[in-house]
Amino acid sequence: MHRISPRRGLAVCVALGALTFTAACSDDAAPDGSPAPAAGTNPAVAPAPADPAAAAAADAALTGDTKQICAQAGRTTTSFGKLFADDYKLKIEAASKGAEAKQQAAQKIARDVENFSFALTNMAAITTDTTLKSALTGMSTQVKALKGDIEKLDTDKMAALTAKLDKACGKG
């Protein structure tokens, strides 16, 4: 049985806490000006629009709107931080439940990491702000490097990338 060291678990929790705290300071309004989703809802796992044209129109509406892209990046990062913490718990719990549980947990974690990376890449593609594009691309690259293995998280590097994103968004 693979055991996750308490030291490693603490480092991951600290990094995720920093990501969640930093991103939680983002704008509370949705891009269309409506209130942010209610507590307990998870916008990162909402189903994708059924119409690809609707998704393209949403991207077109955000293109070049640095403030709204920053707000979306903040919401996405906060959501991923919470999801990441849940995935970490899932991985620990699955370790004692056998091979099938471990495989299912690994697949879910890989999907969550891939979705977050895709979201960061997508936001980088639609921004015209080079500093923001660099911050989002750097975060996406770091997240892709995890390849679903959340124990590979480099907390110092992720904190630096989050600080870079905050700076690009005028928060630090």
UniProtKB/TrEMBL annotation:
<protein>
    <submittedName>
        <fullName>Uncharacterized protein</fullName>
    </submittedName>
</protein>
<keyword id="KW-0732">Signal</keyword>
<feature type="signal peptide">
    <location>
        <begin position="1"/>
        <end position="23"/>
    </location>
</feature>
<feature type="region of interest" description="Disordered">
    <location>
        <begin position="30"/>
        <end position="50"/>
    </location>
</feature>
